[in-house]
Amino acid sequence: MQPEAQLFADLAAYDEIIDVRSPAEFAEDHIPGAINCPVLDDAQRIEVGTLYKQVSPFVAKKIGAAMVSENIGRHLRERFLDKAKDWKPLIYCWRGGNRSGSMTTVFRAIGWRACQLEGGYKTWRSHVIARLECLPEHLNFHVICGTTGSAKTRVLQAIGALGEQILDLETLASHKGSVLGVLPGQPQPGQKWFETLLLQELAGFDPARPVYVEAESRKIGRLHVPEALIGRIRAGECYGIDATLAARVAFLLTDYDYFLAQPDLLGEPLAALKSLHSAETMKRWHGMIAAADWPALVRELLEQHYDPLYRRSQNSNFTGYRNPGAFPTDDLSASGIADLAARIVHSRSAQIA
Fold it and tell me: Max CA-CA distance within the chain?
């Protein structure tokens, strides 16, 4: 095991992980389980940085030290006065420099066994990148395929409910993967936090057991799936859901019901299809929206846009799609999805037997 991998394997040895970076830095990405106790908030960090560049490093350090001291004192009063003498926190900032060093010094002076993360957040980020490059090669992915509207994510989750290992990329990415996949009120995480979430999932899998995952493109919304992971998934064995068009339309009308309640949400994502379809087709689709003719709109989107796109993508990208196991269904209700999940898991068990 690499030294940094061992370091982060030992995180459980600490009673608390404290990220002293600014709230904006913390929101972008952080060590899972860490709490944010900024020694400089966002505005203060900008102020000190401006003083450093425009006035002098000496003035910036004086003002910064005063701010840091005040903030550490506030955190002590509000969050840490109840900690016992043997409390052992791990403290980090961007590079493992002055910000985390200041809090570590104060905490050690009090008598706590505070430790400073060498290299800070940058060490963590390097660890995430390195692990995401090597972990996928040790995992055996079983890929749930099927045209848009085949309830692949729901089937995947039902497989998880049966006790199997699943990697639910769309839930991690807060996006359904398609042009219309934006989830109202659920912004996507940043790329770095998405990768941290991915590492958490991958590191928890047992390599001796299969990991079920949905067929995805390289991008889920605005997020990129790491190359090593997407390459390994695309080499996996595929299980093809062959749902009837009627079943898919019925499922999508339920799964995307927020568009029916707020048709204005369709405007921006539908505009992304203008370069792929004629003005006449786009006008017809907008007319269906205006008339609230949702079944007709969904049917046409599937037949004229999603299905041709899916066939091209799967045939060229997924090795196992050339001869996928086929699971036909005309029922994508909750019970139908549960049945599909059981059939897929049972088919694998039958192959092993």
Answer: 74
